[in-house]
Each structure stands twice: as C-alpha cells, then as structure tokens.
UniProtKB/TrEMBL annotation:
Keywords: Cell membrane, Membrane, Transmembrane, Transmembrane helix. One of its GO terms (cellular component) is plasma membrane. It comes from the Bacteria. This is Chromate efflux transporter. It comes from Alterirhizorhabdus solaris. The gene is chrA.
C-alpha cells in the first residue's frame, strides 16, 4: 500500500494549513472527543469539525475543506465520518485515518450496543415503556418525512430526476427489486443528460424486461413486511446487509433505511416496530445516524450480528478514503460518474418514500389510538420544519415518548 506524504512544515510567512504533530494515541483521543460530542446529525457534526479543525486549528484550508466536503457528498456513506477518516490520513497517514474513524464512531457504537442489550431485556409489550416506544415511532416517521424532503431538495434538481424518483417509487410498489431500479435510474439519467435519448430509452426497456422476467421472485421494498420469515441470519449475512446499506447511502443516512429494512424486516428477522425503535434510538446518540444498523444487527443476530452489520455499514466510509486518498478530489470532476450517481440518488428518494408509507401503515395498525398517534406525528413534523436546531430530533423523540406514555398506554 502506498505511503502518504505529509505536507512539509510551513514557513511563518506562508502559514500553510496543516495538522499539528500528534502521536497515534493523541490523534485517536482527539477524534474520540468529536465522537462524544457528535449530537444533532451530520450538519451539526460537520459544523463542529469545521469550527475546530478548519477555523481554529487550521488542519486544512477552508476552500480545500469545502472541495473535500463536496466529494464526500457525492460518495455513499456518512460525510462527517468520512471527513474524520480523511483528516486523520492527512495528519498521520492511513493508520491515522483508521484511528480517527474508529475514534469518531466508537462512542455511538458502545452506547447503541448498551441500548440494544437493554431493549431486548426490558418488558415492552403492553407496558408504559411500550407505549413510549409507540409514541417515538410516530415521531420517527415525522423525522424521516422531513429528512426525505430535505434530501429531495438537494437531489431532485430537474424534471428528469423527479421522473427517476417517481419511476423508482412506482417500480418498488410493483415489487421490482432495487437491484434493477437503481442502476437503470442512474444509467438512464446519465445517458439522457448527454442527449443520448435512444440509449436511455433502451436502458429503461431492458430494466422493464428484466423486471418482468424476475417477477415471480420479485421481492420489492414495498412488500418487505409481508415476506416469509427465513432462518436466523449468520454474522456473514448481516455483514453483507450492512455493506449493501453502506454502499447505497446517498444524500444522508436515511437513504440506507429501505435497504436495511428489506434485508432484515423483509426476511422476518425483526419487526417494523423494532426497526422504528432502532431509528428512534439512533436519533438521540452522539453518532452518525447510520448507527441504527448496530441496533438492527443486535435484534437480528445478537452481539455478533450487531458488530458484523456495523462493520459492513461503515466499511465503505473507511475504504473510499483509505484506498483513494490521493484521488478523491478527482471524483468531483468526473461528470459522467456524477450524473450516474445523481440518477441513483433520485431513485433512492423514491424508494424511501415508499418505505415511509409502509412504516406509517404499520404504525397505524399497531397503535391503540390513531388520533393520539396522528397528533404526535403532526406536532413532531411541525417542530422539525420550524425549529432549525440540532436539538430538534431529540426533542421530538422525547415529546413522542411523553405523549405516548400518557395517551397510548
């Protein structure tokens, strides 16, 4: 593996931005502190990293950080975590990147493991705690709806991307596998954007033909909750499920939801209610939101399953920086790749919408009071739209739990 050349020490006149001299343990502890303070989702996490490592300590120049962030937003994976890995490499080479990434994710991982362990041992069904989780589930759906809107604003930038999202949603409702939908959306959009309309139409027709051929096996995301339960998963199966989610996380952690749900709820390894509970818990932890995969892995396969799914989910976030450090910025200049990824991301938005509808339907069926659940959802959605704060998500989850304890017990 090629070694990383560290920047030369700047002269007092040049004032070049560069990381300070740190030992490996000091570097790990530096990013562990970031992990302990990583509340509020990716926007708050990136702002924290920018404030301390760009504005105050000048690990990297501001314009270069902006370019790096643009690249991370093109690639799948949690941007804040990928930035930590990249800046760790900049400070101490690839081992430094590995330590920085581990430090950033460790607090959330440990806390989620503890919460998942407690969740499987506490009485939940027909208790006040169960009513609180029902309230949280309604609030989580509101959080996801707001997140989908925000993601869509950044991804669905022209009518053709809207068409890709709507087509993906329709295909998912029809039971077409996302392995057909997403590559077709990316290829058709990239070709159409370059005025190669005949080839784009051919791609769409081929995707339709493949969907018809596989109709008998069709296991689309929309029908995930009705699949026949499969045998208990192995750690390897959960690793691959996490890896799939990690590779298809475009535009934010919420885009991993349909893929993780399909591979777990869809196989009968956990229920939609448990899945929503995991999403709710991830919203209150200092961690990238994809840490919900740790909870899903625990419910599906215990401690080994939790660690395996977490490893799969975070592997791409490590790999892109560790393997492609010197070439990452070239990605932002690769227009064809960007067009393909834009089409895929638009398709993912369509899949998330279908998944949210499924989750909402499941919650509506389970709640003892549809009125109370609707109130929780409406109030939570209003807060998410009106309150621009990193505390908004934890606040609406706490509100959902409080109202659920009173109205749904």
């Amino acid at each position: 593996m090629a070694s990383i050349e560290h920047p030369v020490l700047p002269s007092p006149v040049a004032g070049e931005a560069r990381p300070p001299e740190l030992s490996y343990p000091a570097l790990f502890l530096r990013f562990l502190r970031f992990g302990l303070m990583a509340f509020g989702g990716p926007v708050a996490q990136i702002a924290m990293i920018r404030r301390e490592l760009v504005d105050e300590e000048r690990w990297i120049a501001s314009d270069r950080f902006n370019n790096l962030l643009a690249v991370m937003q093109v690639l799948p994976g949690p941007e804040a975590h990928e930035l930590c890995v990249h800046l760790g490499i900049r400070a101490k080479g690839r081992l430094g990147g590995l330590l920085a990434g581990l430090g950033f994710m460790l607090p959330g991982l440990v806390l989620m493991l503890v919460l998942a362990w407690a969740y499987t041992r506490l009485p939940i069904q027909e208790t006040v705690l169960g009513a609180m989780f029902l309230g949280v589930q309604a609030a989580v759906i509101a959080v996801i709806v707001r997140a989908v809107h925000r993601i869509g604003e950044h991804i669905l930038l022209d009518p053709w991307l809207w068409a890709a999202a709507l087509a993906a949603a329709a295909a998912s409702l029809a039971g077409v596998s996302f392995w057909i939908v997403l590559p077709a959306a990316g290829a058709a959009y990239a070709l159409g954007s370059n005025a190669r309309y005949a080839l784009a139409a051919t791609v769409v027709l081929l995707a339709v033909g493949l969907a018809v051929l596989t109709w008998a096996e069709g296991a689309g995301l929309a029908g995930a909750a009705t699949e026949i339960p499969e045998p208990a998963p192995t750690a390897t199966a959960l690793f691959w499920a996490g890896l799939k989610g990690g590779l298809l996380t475009f535009g934010g952690a919420y885009t991993a939801i349909p893929f993780i749900r399909y591979d777990t709820v869809g196989r009968g390894w956990m229920s939609d209610a448990q899945f929503l509970d995991g999403l709710g818990l991830s919203g209150i932890l200092p961690a990238p939101l994809v840490i919900f995969a740790t909870f899903v892995g625990w419910i599906s396969g215990g401690l080994a399953g939790a660690l395996a799914m977490t490893a799969g989910m975070f592997l791409p976030a490590f790999a892109f920086s560790l393997l492609l450090y010197e070439r990452l910025e070239a990605v932002v200049e690769h227009k064809r790749l960007q067009l393909f990824l834009a089409g895929v991301a638009a398709g993912v938005v369509g899949l998330i919408v279908v998944t949210v509808v499924d989750l909402a339907r499941t919650t509506a069926v389970r709640t003892p009071s549809l009125t109370a659940t609707a109130v929780i959802f409406a109030v939570a959605l209003g807060i998410m739209y009106c309150w621009k704060s990193k505390l908004a998500t934890p606040a609406v989850l706490a509100m959902g739990a409080a109202i659920g304890a009173i109205a749904l017990s």
